[in-house]
Amino acid sequence: MQPILQTKQLCHTYSSGTPFEHTALDRVDFRIERGEFLGIIGHTGSGKSTLIRHLNALLRPSAGQVLLDGEDIWKDKAFTRQARFRVGLVFQYPEYQLFEETVYKDIAFGPKNMGLEAREVDRRVREALGFVGLGEELLEKSPFDLSGGQKRRVAIAGVIAMEPEVLILDEPTAGLDPAGCEAILENIRAFQRSKGAAVVMVSHSMEEVAANVRRLVVMDHGRIFADGSPTEVFARAEELRAIGLTIPQVTEVFRRLRALGLDLPAVYTTGQAKAAILARRGAGTC
Amino acid sequence: MLKDITLGQFFPGTTIVHRLDPRTKLILLVVYIVALFTAKGFLSYGAVLAFLVLAVGLSRIPVKTLMKSLKPLLIVIAITGLLNLFYTEGRVLARFWVFQITVEGIIAAFLMVLRISMLVAGTFLLTYTTSPIALTDGLELLMGPLKKLRVPVHELSMMMCIALRFIPTLTEETDKIISAQKARGADFETGNLLRRGKALLPILVPLFISAFRRADELATAMECRCYHGGEGRTRLRQPRYLMHDFLALALGLLLLAGVITLRLLGL
User: Does residue B185 register a pLDDT over 90?
Assistant: First the structure.
């Protein structure tokens, strides 16, 4: 089946032709399948933010193409606009984009721009609010009276309400406490399950990504450095370290234990580690 | 789009133009502008242009970069040029419909375009070669005597310094907010004036809120470091006049004197 989103030899150069010229993306070939949960990792300046801005047509490629459902995202104006609705993008610290008088109006901004009827807008606002785990009593409040975590959820709801086929989140948990992080991740998983949307999560926390995604893409210097399941990617621990990334701590511990001769599987979450250790105890070899 | 704003941009360097005392450069700019507006004939324009070329050459700022700074003013320059071209009385060269082109018109238009371009280029050369901090320091020192008249010179220059410092930050912020609202389908390009004005609301509200938040944080940070205005404040870099400053000033005054003489002689 055709991937929902695909880039072909995508290149992007900032400030082309000036002393500040900088190549942010260099011939990137990359695809997102329908309904998958994908993680993108890379250190600061690796091109991940530039890449996701291309995925919903906020940036125009210097060369190459972005295909949505097999069609060029820049094919014509109407399609580009459609693409922005079909590929929802949640920026880093999205709470700073809130502007309306009430939470309701802010969440409704996207759906209204889509030209939906009032009843459909209303349904979507309420449903999106549910997905991010907020109560309807907040709807008539000013978004500026909410707590930081609540604001973040309202902002995410504003994108979810457009019911995108691909939801891209740039560091959705940055600056939140652990409980807040887990809650937001759970909200995102709930949205993915119920709508069957593809979710792309950009992060530099290996632990967070490893625990949530099936597929992991590592970026470095504007190129795709690795693309595969977390196990496949983390097997290249040395190379990852060379480009300034680390693998999850628990994966590293298990790798070293294996190097010492213990027969252990590759894991990347503490849950898996626990299961692996218990399995060995059950087998009576520890 | 917003990235093209070069106002207040600074290209670090170590050339003699970069190393001149900011006060020298500010005075030279004033002298240069006065000379530019005093100049009348080709000879005096040539002298001022030579001065600019010398400064640009010494600063190693690429001419291309300087030309780019003229771009936003292209329309103003073009209109001024055209008005001078068509509305100067004199020997008529060509005439069509209500327009006429005269020899004097061509000369006036050429000189006027040259004058505006040189004005802008000279000013940009100052900001390109002087860091905002040095610039505001220079302004503060130059305006020092006004303190006697109870003008809050230090506060004004601190405000200017902060404003310059935050131009890139706010530009980046605006870019980010525009992207975020575009991602939610905001449309800034179609509709009549009223609709477009309204479409700016989703950008302006978050931008103002974030500007106020930043101002608040900056004020706290400054207070934490015991900032309490200009009274008794010393500088990290005490600016000093060196030989090249005097030379540059002498050259500037020579230029001005020359241009005034040429004007008095009617050349």
Answer: no
Mean pLDDT of chain B: 84
Q: Is residue A169 within 8 Å of A156, Cβ to Cβ?
A: yes
Q: Which of residues 155-194 of B touch A (CB under 8 A)?
A: 176-177, 179-187
Contact A159 B65 (CB under 8 A): no
B1 pLDDT more than 50 = no
Residue B29 pLDDT grade (very low, low, confident, very high; cuts 50, 70, 90): very high
Q: Which of A52, A97, A102, A170 to mutate to test the interface with B (most CBs of B within 10 A)?
A: A97
Q: Is-contact B178 B201, C-beta < 8 A?
A: no
Q: Three-state DSSP class for B128?
A: helix
Phi, psi of A46 (to 5 degrees): -85, -10
Contact B179 A91 (CB under 8 A): yes
CB pairs under 8 A between A and B: 58
Domain boundaries, chain B: 2-165+235-264
Q: Exposure pattern of A222-251 as b/e (b: 16+ CB <10 Å)? A: bbbbbbeebeebbbeeeebeeeebebbebb
Record: contact A113-B184, CB cut-off 8 A:
yes
pLDDT one-digit tens code per residue, B111-130: 889 899 999 889 888 888 88
Contact A159 B183 (CB under 8 A): yes
Instruction: Count Cβ atoms below 10 Å from residue B23 Cβ, excluding itself.
Output: 19
Q: Name chain B contacts of A15, Cβ cutoff 8 Å.
A: 3
Q: pTM (2 decimals)?
A: 0.74
Q: Which amino acid is located at B59 in the chain?
A: S
Q: Report the residue of chain B nearest A81, measured CA to CA.
A: B185
Is residue B6 pLDDT above 70, yes or no?
no
- Do A120 and A166 touch, CB atoms closer than 8 A? no
Who among B3, B179, B187 is closest to A58 (CB)? B179
Query: Which three-class secondary structure state does DSSP give residue A264?
Result: coil
pLDDT band at A17 (very low <50, low <70, confident <90, very high): low
Cβ contact, residue pair A56, B183, below 8 Å: yes
Q: What is the pLDDT of residue B218?
A: 93
Instruction: Report angle CA A110, A115, A116 to the nearest 5 degrees.
Output: 85
CA B48 to chain centre: 18
